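Honest question from a wet-lab person: if I give you the sequences of every part of a complex, can you actually get the arrangement of the whole thing, not just the pieces? Trying it with mine:
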Amino acid sequence: MFLYAPIVVLIVFSFNQSKSRSVWKGFSLRWYENLFRDHNILEALWTSIEVAVIAAIVSTVIGTAAAVGLKKMNKGLRSVMLTLNNIPMVNPDIVTGISMMLLFVAVFGATGLFRPGFGTLVAAHITFCIPYVILSVMPKLNQMNPSIYEAAQDLGCPPLKAFFKVVIPEIMPGIITGMMMAFTLSLDDFVISYFTSGSTAQTLPMVIYSMTKRRISPKINALSALMFVIVLTLLVVINIRQIREATRKRNEKFSG
Amino acid sequence: MKKDSWVASPFMLWVVLFTVVPLAMVCWYAFTDSTGAFTLANIETIGTYWGYLKDSLIMGAVATVLCLLLGYPVAYVMSRASWGTQQTLMMLLMLPQWMNFLLRTYAWMTILENNGLINTLLGKIGIGPFHMINTKGAIVLGMVYNFLPYMILPIYSVMEKIHKSLFEAANDLGANRVQTFRRVVLPLSLPGVITGITMVFVPSVSTFVISQMLGGGRNPLIGDVIERLFVGAAPNYNVGAALSLVLMVLILISMAVMKKFDDGEETGGLMM
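Yes, you can. This is the full assembly:
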């Protein structure tokens, strides 16, 4: 109830005829029309998606390789790296954001290269996504039976091929979870983007933030309603599949 | 096998470039002035910001306690429900999280406003209007609303792993429900509580979005101050970096204290 009331209010008033956010003046779709005519919003949505796709792919590749490498590393170095890996997750977003902003501003000031914008935004997103990828791939690697990789090699499979044919499929669920987490975290992030994007790139949450500061348009309501419905549909589909799968596994476990 | 660890090198390079170097720069800025000379002046000016820092810590703590009081029972009920119900409740809990938190906070803005939904409805039955937006209460509400699931989830996931046989054993040994809860569930759920507390406290203390949207800039928190110092009209990276450093250290200290408290409780439990 507490969790849903604000969202319901938001959605209901997205269909309001008037600009008021408290008085109902009749049904209308005008805010949705306005929304789709707003180039600022559409462009920001596109930027958000681009950043999220690039960040998800790059952080998944780096993170998965890191998880594999970390497992083979000597203990001392590994624990140092894992501690460093935790930093972006433990630190408040604002500190992560301003620390990278300092770097980007300094590099640009000193060299004139890498003007803060889309590029720095993507770099920042990759940075805060990598830890989550590593943390979802590591457990899968630890669960994996190492002898199957050795068996593949004993049977004459070259190491690289054995890695892609044997190890990758084994840890695939972890990789996919990590990638999905990276994608959604990136799409959802506001604070870190706010500090690292310079003035040239704007993601959707940044546009929402500047809209709420001017607090005028019910376009935001329309936007939230749309996003909520899209996410809802996606989640219901994914969840129903997962619950079915999990329930089946549970039943098998208990009956077998 | 050791030679394969080279595949982690892009990661190591990345961490050094984008985590270690930026943090080193925060320290460097905190201890230098605008010409780059060493100074302690930035750290000394923190005294003038003590009020904001204190407000942030108090409001963050209040929000965390409220989340714990609300979230713990929910987590307990969830963990004792049937498998299907657990899954459904979990989904209901996570669903709002998928809406951007700016939008969720914005929703509260429209509800709490002076001519917002609550006051309009109350006005119809002749009460009010009450002043709710731009108060500290509104900010705490925003924190609780946004971060409550971060409290429930870790507690739930720890409780859910408590084996059924422990309840049966406690029951067999003559413990009633209250005793079972106090002697079995509570100690075993503490690690989840600790995680939950950090997951709520850290974003609450450092927020600037919630305080700006629901506090109207009238109750600035330390996050607002830092944000202004970096992107405001009169930026001062040095003081901003010093404040961030202090915030980081305070959070690290509170986490270390929590962790110590956790360990202490565990050994205490064993001794009983």
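Two things worth pointing out. Residues 266-272 of chain B have pLDDT under 50 and may be disordered. Chain B touches chain A through 76 residues (CB under 8 Å).
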